[in-house]
């Protein structure tokens, strides 16, 4: 079932608010930013790529959305703190999406140390820095707010050749579940969600910054396979529409592909209960 059918309209929940989205200079983050603007939110575009952040913010402004580009590297807690400061200067932030993330392909034991550190710094610490900078300000503002952390179906599904990414997304999901109960404990009116996309048509496998493992030709072949898989996925706009619809309906686990996502979660649940080991697979994101 799509949460879009449950009757809570995203515009009723989100219009008039202020969204901050990391990694919004492209891909899924850009899709979420455009959708947020379309719903009547003001949007802060945070991305390490300043020119892409600027491009998205300008294009949103041309469409009548109040938007600001704030170049931010989520690996740096001071930059994320400055992002929060800059965002709250425009009003209380009602939606934070910790979306920035990177991939890397290769066998676990072949993973260069710098790739391991980069993936954990961006995918895991980046989310933590967002939570650390924004939650106290959201609580102090006293209003209702939401935080979405973008994990992946790789948070519940294991495939070969992507171990650091899978480890990072399991960590994001665990951190998101723990954040939810921490906020409940202090009675903060902040709704937390984990986003678990399957394939979305983005350039995640074209991003630079990772060092190739020894066998460059087979690394490129692997990337090509993943690019072909992503080409069969949702557009960022489709993923964003479904994500906002499910969030408006109050879901904790936001599945841009509801059927695929639910199937993967069911399989994971059954696997844990039956205590069967994962088997080698290479065809999921
Ligand atoms: N595309 C998919 O199929 C898919 C599936 C599941 C989960 N995801 C997740 O969705 C999120 C977005 O991925 P995408 O597919 O849109 O990738 P993408 O490469 O298209 O976009 C990622 C954006 O994050 C930015 N970024 C990278 N490092 C950053 C940093 N240190 N600080 C700030 N911004 C940084 C990039 O500049 C880029 O604009 C990631 O967390 C990814 O793991 C993607």
TrEMBL record:
Protein name stated in the entry: SDR family NAD(P)-dependent oxidoreductase
Keywords per UniProt: Oxidoreductase
Source species, domain of life: Bacteria
PANTHER family named in the record: OXIDOREDUCTASE SADH-RELATED, RETINOL DEHYDROGENASE-RELATED
Pfam families assigned to the protein according to its UniProt record, in alphabetical order: adh_short
Organism: Microbacterium capsulatum
Family: Belongs to the short-chain dehydrogenases/reductases (SDR) family.
InterPro entries membership: NAD(P)-bd_dom_sf, SDR_fam
